[in-house]
Inverse folding.
């Protein structure tokens, strides 16, 4: 009897287990799978990361901006550059100083450099400090409206973006925006946007002597000058020359440009780029261009960067170089503006220790030096 009772209890237990673990619909299994919730969170997290990456990317200067012809005046509220540093930091050149950051040439050696150390404003330099008042400091700015308010001092007066459009808040903060006819890609947009009253100064093509930048012959550049730049003179604009890289062929290109124009192209100032690590060489280069063309100088890109070597310097060397050359330029009446490369999150192939900007958009220690003392 006991044996039969045990069998009956066993059968009852099996029946109960069968009811408890019966097959569920596939969708129910998916909903309750131990992996499904984690996978869903991973998907949302991945999407959020992609959005953050896209936002970060929009704030970076890529090897020197290559503006799109489809850009219009409406984009000025948050202009960003599509390509940019030189040669402007991505094209190659035979000279160590031939490249600029907006699309410049390099050997990739700067990739080993460490990122700038994020640091608050020095306690001795309050946010309200006015700087030294020279007004020669200039910002090459691919960041749209973001964080611009941190970079206006008596030292800084001018901003450009390698494009025809700039931050919509530049004027209210106190900057003069200088639109640039970067090259073929933004010529149409430049012609539509840059009109009387838009600004009072304009920059010409970016490193036309570099294949990775504007890349055009002096003869073709004459055509662009006559069509888009020269008409601005009667509308109250001062006009800057093309900005060649510091590749030795830059001077050759410029002389051929003036020869092809038969005396008709008359910029009001010469724009130059320079990358290397010798303060004396920098000064000689700037003097050479002033002497050759007898015009004021805008150094629209420069940094402590050797594109042909591995000695990119530490922060103290970069600070010393900056102090030396900016102090010298402040004393040269013919140097009107100078724009360090760079005030951006990503310096592309330029040593990141040259950055004026922390990851949160505030100035680095080097940034404070540039903004307040040079």
């Amino acid at each position: 009897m006991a044996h039969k009772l045990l069998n009956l209890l066993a059968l009852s237990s099996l029946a109960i287990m069968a009811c408890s673990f019966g097959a569920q619909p596939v969708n129910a299994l998916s909903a309750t799978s131990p992996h499904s919730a984690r996978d869903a969170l991973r998907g949302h997290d991945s999407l959020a990361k992609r959005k953050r990456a896209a936002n970060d990317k929009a704030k970076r200067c890529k090897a020197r901006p290559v503006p799109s012809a489809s850009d219009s005046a409406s984009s000025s509220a948050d202009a960003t550059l599509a390509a940019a540093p030189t040669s402007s930091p991505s094209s190659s050149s035979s000279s160590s100083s031939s490249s600029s950051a907006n699309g410049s040439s390099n050997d990739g050696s700067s990739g080993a450099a460490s990122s700038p150390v994020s640091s608050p404003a020095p306690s001795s330099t309050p946010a309200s400090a006015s700087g030294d008042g020279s007004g020669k400091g200039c910002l090459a700015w691919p960041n749209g409206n973001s964080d611009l308010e941190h970079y206006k001092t008596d030292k800084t007066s001018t901003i450009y973006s390698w494009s025809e459009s700039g931050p919509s808040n530049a004027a209210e903060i106190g900057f003069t925006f200088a639109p640039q006819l970067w090259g073929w890609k933004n010529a149409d947009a430049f012609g539509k946007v840059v009109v009387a009253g838009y600004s009072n100064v304009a920059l010409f093509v970016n490193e036309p002597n570099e294949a990775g930048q504007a890349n055009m012959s002096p003869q073709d550049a004459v055509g662009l000058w006559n069509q888009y730049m020269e008409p601005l003179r009667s509308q109250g604009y001062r006009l800057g020359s093309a900005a060649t890289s510091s590749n030795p062929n830059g001077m050759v290109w410029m002389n051929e440009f003036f020869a092809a124009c038969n005396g008709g192209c008359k910029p009001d100032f010469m724009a130059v780029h320079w990358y290397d690590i010798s303060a004396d060489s920098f000064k000689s280069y700037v003097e050479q261009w002033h002497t050759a063309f007898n015009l004021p100088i805008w150094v629209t890109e420069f940094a402590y960067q050797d594109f042909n070597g591995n000695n990119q310097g530490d922060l103290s060397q970069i600070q010393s170089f900056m102090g030396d050359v900016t102090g010298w330029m402040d004393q040269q009446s013919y140097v009107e503006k100078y724009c360090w490369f760079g005030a951006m999150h990503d310096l592309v192939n330029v040593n990141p220790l040259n950055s004026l900007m922390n990851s949160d958009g505030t100035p680095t220690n080097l940034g404070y030096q540039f903004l307040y003392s040079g």
About this structure: Residues 44 and 179 are 40 Å apart (CA to CA).
